[in-house]
């Protein structure tokens, strides 16, 4: 399996290094045949080649079996004309990676929740409020005069249906219910179209139950009774916010793995951002990116019919859970004392000890 590795900005290089070490350990243990190809993006690439997403790196993405994208500090980039391209938004829209799949599972001892959380948020990834490329220059925002600013939110039936399909397919492999999260009581046209599209897809999945919930109620229910959710499907910004809430409720933003998936391509990406406040200090929790890489192995394993990749993911997921359940092997964001490198070493020791 050929994997393109793009370390990114902020804590990106540190957590990417940890992820690469873990992948090497899994490969040595199970003979997965992983071929990793590391390339610069972000501010490192801007300095070297004048673009935060060089053309030759972009061209590699559809040629490999999967990509690991580190977090990027896109808010520090120069304008597009000066080489500043948000790699995350560019990859999602250009390659139609329409589903951002974010599993969240609570770990005993790390969560304050009253009922266990084991859910997956499937977030629409190509439109909504964050549709950089689908609008005119400047993305979906404009200021007609210095005193007023507008944001345009684009919702289409096509994008809503395809993300809904991802959610229903996933629910079939889990507890068979999907909750569509929306605000159609106020945003009657846009969220109304999203909801109608999800309902239309639900008709093809009589074995999966569709529930509907308004986004503010969903934010509350995530705290009160997370066990009542299986798969959630929602529009771009709601999904962004709810998944941070969900992973923090599980213990830390640094825990949630995620992939951006389309029909043919998949990009692993941590749920959190580049965390500039702790960058370069060797204290970031690498779990989110490590689990994201594991989800990528699983995604490719399913498509290429390579069960050993799927087993490697199961093994990784199990061992990560047991390592973070142990207070002595936690990073600081989880109340522990380990830095990135020591945590990674402990994780690899546990991975290679257990079959
Ligand atoms: P973005 O706009 O890219 O989503 P953000 O503003 O949401 O970025 P994050 O980079 O996700 O911000 O960071 C939010 C907070 O969580 C910061 O205080 C950061 O230090 C912390 N954090 C994020 N990721 C990690 C991690 N892997 N380990 C430890 N702390 C983290
Ligand atoms: Mg964020």
Could you please describe the fold and organization of this structure?
Residues 2-347 form the Isopropylmalate dehydrogenase-like domain. By secondary structure, the chain is of the alpha/beta class. 40% of the residues lie in helices and 17% in strands. It has helices at 12-30, 42-49, 55-60, 87-94, 157-172, 190-202, 215-224, 236-249, 287-303, 307-324, 340-353, and strands spanning 2-6, 35-38, 66-69, 99-105, 118-124, 141-145, 148-151, 177-182, 209-214, 231-234, 259-261, 266-269. The strands form 2 sheets. A 10-stranded mixed beta sheet has the order 2-1-3-12-11-4-5-10-8-9, sandwiched between helices. Strands 6-7 form a two-stranded antiparallel ribbon. It is globular. The two termini are 21 Å apart. The model has no long low-confidence stretch (mean pLDDT 95). Bound molecules: adenosine-5'-triphosphate and magnesium ion.
Brief overview:
With 355 residues, the chain is of the alpha/beta class. The chain has helices spanning 12-30, 42-49, 55-60, 87-94, 157-172, 190-202, 215-224, 236-249, 287-303, 307-324, 340-353; strands at residues 2-6, 35-38, 66-69, 99-105, 118-124, 141-145, 148-151, 177-182, 209-214, 231-234, 259-261, 266-269. It has a ten-stranded mixed beta sheet, sandwiched between helices. The protein has a two-stranded antiparallel ribbon with strand order 6-7.
Radius of gyration: 20 Å
Tell me which ligands are bound. Answer: adenosine-5'-triphosphate, magnesium ion
* Total helical elements: 11
**How many strand segments?**
12
Largest sheet: 10 strands, mixed
Order of helices and strands: EHEHHEHEEEEHEHEHEHEEHHH
Structural class: alpha/beta
β-strand amount:
15-25%
């Amino acid at each position: 399996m050929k994997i393109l590795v793009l370390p990114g900005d902020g804590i990106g290089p540190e957590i990417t290094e940890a992820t690469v070490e873990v992948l090497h350990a899994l490969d040595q243990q199970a003979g997965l045949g992983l071929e990793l190809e590391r390339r610069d993006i972000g501010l490192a690439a801007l300095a070297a080649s004048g673009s935060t997403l060089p053309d030759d790196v972009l061209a590699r993405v559809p040629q490999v079996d999967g990509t690991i994208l580190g977090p990027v500090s896109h808010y520090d980039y120069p304008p597009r004309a000066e080489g500043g391209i948000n790699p995350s938004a560019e990859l999602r829209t250009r390659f139609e990676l329409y589903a951002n799949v974010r599993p969240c599972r609570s770990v005993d001892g790390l969560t304050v929740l009253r009922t266990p959380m084991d859910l997956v948020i499937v977030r629409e990834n190509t439109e909504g409020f964050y549709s950089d490329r689908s609008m005119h220059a400047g993305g979906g925002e404009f200021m007609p005069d210095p005193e007023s600013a507008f944001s345009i939110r684009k919702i289409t039936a096509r994008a809503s249906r395809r993300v809904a399909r991802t959610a229903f397919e996933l629910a079939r492999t889990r507890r068979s219910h999907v909750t569509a999260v929306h605000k159609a009581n106020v945003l009657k046209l846009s969220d109304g179209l999203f909801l109608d599209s999800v309902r239309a897809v639900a008709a093809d999945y009589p074995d999966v139950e569709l529930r509907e919930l308004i986004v503010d109620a969903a934010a509350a229910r995530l705290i009160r009774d997370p066990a009542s959710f299986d798969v959630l499907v929602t529009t771009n910004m709601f999904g962004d916010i709810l998944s941070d809430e969900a992973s923090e409720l599980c213990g830390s933003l640094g825990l949630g793995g995620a992939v951006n998936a389309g029909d043919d391509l998949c990009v692993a990406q941590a749920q959190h951002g580049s965390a500039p406040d702790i960058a370069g200090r060797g204290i970031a929790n690498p779990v989110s990116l490590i689990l994201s890489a594991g989800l990528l192995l699983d995604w490719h394993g399913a498509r290429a019919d390579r069960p050993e990749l799927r087993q490697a993911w199961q093994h990784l997921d199990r061992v990560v859970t047991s390592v973070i359940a142990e207070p002595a092997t936690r990073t600081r964001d989880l109340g522990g004392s380990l830095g990135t490198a020591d945590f990674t070493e402990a994780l690899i020791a546990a991975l290679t000890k257990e079959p």
